[in-house]
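Student: Hello, beginner here. Can you help me understand the protein record under this note? Any guidance would be welcome.
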Amino acid sequence: MEDLTLVKPRFTPPLDEGFCPVALASRAFRQAVLASGAVAPLVLAIERNDGAVSRYETVVFADDHSGAAANLRYAERLVKFLLWQRGGWKVYVGGSSRIGEHIRQCYSAAGDRHFDYHFMGEEVYERPFTVVVCAPQEAPPANETSKPLGRHLDGCRIGFDLGASDRKASAVIDGRPVYSEEVIWEPRKHSDPDYHYRKIMAGLKSAAAHLPRVDAIGGSSAGIIINNRPMVASLFRGVPKDRFHQVRNLFLRIADELSVPLEVINDGDVTALAGAMSLDDNGVLGIAMGSSQAAGYVDRDGNLTGWLSELAFAPVDYNPAAPADEWSGDHGVGASYFSQQCVFRLAPRAGIQIPDDIPDAEKLKFVQRYLEAGHPGAIQIW
């Protein structure tokens, strides 16, 4: 049958002509399944921290249908997306055992998705990553959680943002900015957790110097933050495993030393929250396109979902020649399309050669100068 993973978009990106969106491929696959009459259910349930469970129901070809081989790629890409959208250490595959065993093999220590196996299991949720193959009716029901956060502007507050190429700190009084700084840094190149502690504290103290007091601190950071603890983050990739416990407790230490309420969440969640406040609305998806891609979601009740929302690793392109992400090794994932990484990837195709010996923040500014000058290739990148 026709390869449903290679559906071309109506409008082709001028510098990325091979782009085949996952969204279109998934839509075409489901339509083909329904049209075939050989429909089988597939239920994916993913368990994360504190017993929270996300559940997704779809359809695939029956095992005895000629198109059943296409089930495997569809299901694997769907599991990958759900893992990075929702987060989890245990995946229930309710449906065909052929699909279930394929997912189990892929998401194993020796499988193609070994990065996700280790990342989601031992690193983020500190549990062995597990795939359970079961009947559709045996997959557990959804048990979603959410919590209200932020929206407070009263008093004297500090906000900070930790990106992979710069860090920012601001001071506000009753919502009115009185100080802001942006400092270039390269945290990924430093292995000593004390380097990160000193730099973050320096920014907080600079902001605090412009306030009569500090009532609370709110922060956003690249990476996965659970209960104010960075479980994994590109910022700290240089820190060896035997010292990573110092990173896990970094923000708890800062809050304790400053004796101030402090909350740190993923920069995508902060973007969604800021968008909801600005729009005075709920049901808001926020996307932060910085050195990597972050995303967050404020639900229709105005709460944060507790999902992982790390769409930097979510698949968006089915093109077999799609670029490989330099960290996960997977092809066609979000960070290669919706971050600085996309600018650096497409610049040579646009006729722009970026110097190798400058920081990423300067590389971005280098290409942005071409954009400001009206360079046709730079315009095509954006």
Remarks:
- The chain has a mean pLDDT of 92.
- Residues 70-86 form the longest helix (17 residues).
- The longest strand covers residues 39-47.
- Residues 156-279 form a domain with the Nucleotidyltransferase; domain 5 fold (CATH 3.30.420.40).
